Amino acid sequence: MKAIYFLVGLLALASSFASAYDPSPLQDFCVALNDTQNAVFVNGNFCKDPKVVVAEDFFKHVDPGNVVNKLGSNVTPVSVNELPGLNTLGISLARLDFAPKGLIPPHTHPRATEILTVVEGTNRLFTKVLNKGDVFVFPIGLIHFQFNVGYGNAVAISGLSSQNPGVITIANAVFGSTPPISPEVLTKAFQVDQKIINYLEKQF
Fold this sequence. Notes:
Layout: H1 2-18, E1 32-33, E2 40-42, E3 45-47, E4 73-78, E5 92-98, E6 103-108, E7 114-120, E8 123-125, E9 128-130, E10 135-138, E11 144-148, E12 154-160, E13 168-169, H2 170-175, H3 183-190, H4 194-202
Antiparallel strand pairs: 1-3, 2-3, 4-5, 5-12, 6-11, 6-13, 7-10, 7-12, 8-9, 8-11
Helix pairs in contact: 3-4
């Protein structure tokens, strides 16, 4: 009887280890498309017939973004929405362009870890200053920002561990939500006068 309990316990442990990895996709690729006729629905998107997939489904040129705005930055995402060949591959990226002192405000990616490398310029991430060639990782869900501390333009590339990482900009979520969060709640939460909360809400 003890041998049976031991065998059952061993099988339970083995099966728990076997399921503790990310499974591979069922197919090599599944190019997303909007046309639903004669398509298969996989991972939130319809898939193009593999017989008509072309190299262009996996290609996108990304130009520098326009940084003439109140934040002095521009994010150009390359997710499954912009590059259909990313569907089911579990990756995406973004080009980050900064004017001098440009900012990508505090935000989080609810479905992805981000790895950022500075291509040109100098960026501050929390207390760490990154220079050209430096790499930094933001774990999934961590609130983070990028700020160009230099006096010239800066460019960074972010790789994300999801085809659709999502982004939640904290200020927009707090001060620009619909329906709005009660000013009484925000006043108490931030320990500031309601006039400040009213001013901030008008910015969004």
